[in-house]
Amino acid sequence: MERAIMGSRILASVIPVSLAILGVLIANLPVSFLGGIVPAPLLGLMPIYFWCLVRPDLMPPFWAFAVGILEDMLSGGPAGVWTLSFVVTYALVDRQRDAFAGLSGLGAILGFATAAAVACASAYWVEALYYWRLPPLAPVMGELAMSVVFYVPAAMFLGLVHRRLVGPLRSDF
Amino acid sequence: MANGTWTNRRARGNYQLPLAVVFVLAIIIVLLGKAQTTLFDRARAHVTDWMAPGLEVVHRPFDWVSGLWHDLGDAFSVHQDNLRLKEENARLRQWQTYAVTLQARVKRYQLLLHAVPDPALSSVLAHVIGRARRPFLETMILDAGKANGVKPGQAVIDTRGMIGRIFLAGEHTAWVILLSDLNSRIPVIIEPGHAQAILSGDNANAPALETLAQGAVVHEGDQVVSSGDGGILPPGLPIGTVIAAASGFRVALLADPAASQDVEIVDFKTPIEMPPAPTAKDLPVAAAGLPPAAPPPAAAGNQAAAPVPTLPQKPVAKPAAEPAQPPPSDTPSDDQ
Question: Which residues in chain A have Cβ-Cβ distances shorter than 8 Å to B8?
Fold first, then answer.
């Protein structure tokens, strides 16, 4: 019985980060949808934001850091850009958790939009410092817009996973 | 939405210290990536090599759908395309005749002038197994790597023109930085004015022309080719056409990276292939039936005081012993 509880706890703790890794893999699939007109959303950031709010013990800062490294590795950009931006976003959400967690409906989407905007702005400025010139703003804005649009179905999916899988596997839920 | 439906009664750890640690680690990674780019690139190349078979499988249905989409579009314009191609074919035949004539003439001039030939370009054919358009990077992934002789810096072209250059080569895969990418800078020449410039990508579809030489005159519709400056890219690779934009001149690229399925990776560093040494009948004096001019007699005693300037060592043709042959009938005359 003890072992079963222990196993289910481990499984529950692995699901959030697994979904974040899966999100990074899907977002960075080098397949151009619609001829590359539409940029890929930040799918890796969504589980980080979601579980940082509802169960921060399942998404500690280290996982945000690790998912950022994977994003950097697969996106092909300079090293550390998304790692740093994910960590900065995590820090913001962690400090303002009560404010973000109290949001619902459209407010929840705006909450994620704020977090995604912080992530994109961080990445933009790190990139600017990296090459010492301002990159064009439009692609980053496109990625931000797509991330916010995709967060609506993603939040429903993550909520479902949390209720059906993560919650029942944790006795303290 | 999910956020408001749960009460926030979870156990919260104090993440101040872990956050500070990962923040410092992230900054170290940024600095390390700036100082030691190869370290991160090597890891990235290994990951891509490992993912290559999966990428090919994933990419295949997209290729199929893309091809089907194009075929469907073409089906509606078969008649117009046929008429256009017939007209284009007739025009290209005229150009072919003209090109063959000019090629023969250029070859003759090169032989006469002992011109250094253009380097022979060998290439590797590769299939596109992935392409991505991220905010800070526009790239494609090819299924050829170091095992096929691919090296960073090599130019990547398709049937229409240059697409970009290799910036990361794994064992069996390579990443291409597209000409439109934010980090792409290549030296180009704008013809016919022979103006030199830098083609600078900014993630727009048409990269910008920067650092134009002073006094350079550029017109809309001029052709842009690689200049070969720096010895990284071969000169003369077709790139695009100059178009006017609000902020200056830009280049409409000939190649379409979004549609290219198979590309060539041009190896510019192969040994230069020397042309055959000119024979006596290739020289105009011999061809005209005249004896070659004798070298000027050296004045005895003043050689040390006034050395005769010498030309660099070139293969010199022997004087013709037999009567000179008339030029071959297929050689064009100058008035052609």
Answer: 53-54, 97-98, 101-102
